[in-house]
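The record is given unchanged here:
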Amino acid sequence: MAVNFFIGRRIGRKWNGPERAVWLTIGIIYNLLWLMSFKYSAFFAENTNALLTYVGLSVQLPVLRPALPLGISFYTFQAIAYLADVYRKKIRSESSLLRFGTWFTMFTQVTSGPITRYQEVRPQLLGRKLSLDRLETGLREFTIGLSLKVLLANQLGGLWNQVNAIGYESISTPLAWMGIIAFSLQLYFDFYGYSLMAQGLGWILGFQIPRNFAHPYQSLSMTEFWRRWHMTLGKWFKDYIYIPLGGNRRGTFIMVRNLLAVWLLTGFWHGADWNFLLWGLLLFVLISLEKLGLGTLLNRFPALGHIYMAFVIPLNWLVFAISQPAQILIYLQRLFPFFNAPGAYTWFAGDYLKYGQIYGLSLIAGLIFVTDLPRRIYNRYRTTFVTALGLVVLFWICIYCIKMGMDDPFLYFRF
């Protein structure tokens, strides 16, 4: 916090362009150095050691696994955005360490986002607005987010955990689809729930934290999906990577190159493992195809777009969820059994019925709540006594579930 404050002040005070660029470079390297040291050093050391062994050298690098500071990926990106915006003269450097530190360490969102820009928060730091209406709005949004996390994400996560415990070789095709759909819904409600809780706490404290989700599972393409999922991260990559590289203004080849850079970095930002790079590469291929014409077709025929996304979303999260490429291949063979050799796998034929009875209601509820229908109903009846009473009941049900041990950590704390 102190170093970024100091570097921001140096950039803001310099009029000489090259000198300002030097300080910006120092700031970016400084922030990325800590991120690389804590999050990626083991990944690079392990792969370097594997390469050295392959070429017959006995030299090995030490593999260090320091404890990951909570939220380091998020506040690193916030710091870089701040320095870049000061450099571009979009904002003035902050003169108050107290105001800068309040934004930089804001507990409501620093651990898992949304990624806030300093210019979004500074006016509120100078004059927060506190009121009973804002308090009520905050409590409502916090309760909705908490309910999505505890009552939906955690329950759906139970099905995905069961599938992992059984082993991918021993599940039927219906259960394989149920499992990956459950993970897709769990990830959404886990992160969307966290974002709503962060926004709710922000309202309570007098801050308006930016929206992070806009019902992405209703999208017609992956391009649209990533405009509506983790919107603050997508906007960060657009503003600080994609556009500075040239965006789509310099021809198709440059656009595809820039998309490759953005999506490989997006994948690697989420985790230091090969499956995240593979996941980023998959997104690059899909979004490039959509930019080159597929997206026009999907938007022209919405039914086709929804069918396309119904397959692409679970397969996209499959690569995200499973770290070992060999296990990803096995799971794909369970999803599409016609690729298997006859008799390659055996499973309990009624497994999907067994777990369907346990998790069926959660799956149905999840498929309903990924749409905007519940929010539209809530907005229509928001001011009624029944709605207020329902939220109070949901809050205490969540508290009871947490007391009983149903308090799984947020998934995005890993990233």
